[in-house]
């Protein structure tokens, strides 16, 4: 619960006589002002300084002797790391981490510039992997979200570089990132970092399938394996982004199917998308079985409905766009229902958004071809406003008569 919510709702509680003004003030004191924005300023400032240094160095690089170039790279990197360590020890953790981040960026820039200076040619993503390992080491030493973010981005970028430049999947980058980032996430159990780890894993899974020219639906195997792992982990509060990120990715894929696949379109892409049915469906069935067993053990059997999003119904081969319109509606209603059952405002808001997306998608599929385009947007806008108003009214009534629950990790 945020301080802003307590402040605004508390006034209404005082007016209704639920609490006294003194009690309202005491409750307010329990929610101190958050200074996240102020804490971000040193980090953003550090990034800007780093970009300025890099741009200045690049502009004057060719006019410097090689020895001066090397000394400059070493001096900038050592200076940033040294300043970051000194500031961190003195209690200026945000500014210190900003300088550590500068040192990490300088290290990567040094790799690139040194390779250019001595005309070294890369044949794989090793330089990016080394850079990512330096980020991992810094992350473990300083236990920083900011450095973790940079490290996750570096390993994802290493994989992207390997795939786009050398047309090969870097199993080294994937394994080191999986063990290093995953190990850090397991130790810290921070949901923000779990989000980043999950998104990096999903992106690299897509790259793995794409670079080997496998049928696209094979992407669902590692992605749903990550989802199943989320059922096995005990700390639901910290690790729920593992499954949330997967569901978001699969929902977007299903939405893509609804928007761009219809009539004969499916036959045109079937060859590129669908692997042989027997092995693929067998693997998915095993993952589903494992997930359901784990859900039942933890008393979360109802959440097995989430597997409805998995695009195995593409094998039906007919009217897949209509099938997935229904899937999107069912899933959005499920999210809404779970939000009200758990008294979780965030999930209610998410379910509302998903329901509106499903409504407008279905409306567009049904009416775009034969309705006048001006009338299409007018009617669509009116429908969106009406549905949104009804859902928001239901939400306000719900929270006016009750309170938001606290156990949202089910």
TrEMBL record:
Keyword NADP included in the entry's annotation: no
TM regions (residue ranges): 37-61, 67-84, 96-119, 125-141, 146-163, 169-186, 198-218, 238-261, 273-294, 314-336, 348-368, 374-391
Pfam families the UniProt entry points to: DUF2157
Record-annotated DUF2157 domain positions: 12-147
InterPro entries documented for this protein: DUF2157 (IPR018677)
Keywords: Membrane, Transmembrane, Transmembrane helix
Entry protein name: DUF2157 domain-containing protein
Species of origin: Gordoniibacillus kamchatkensis
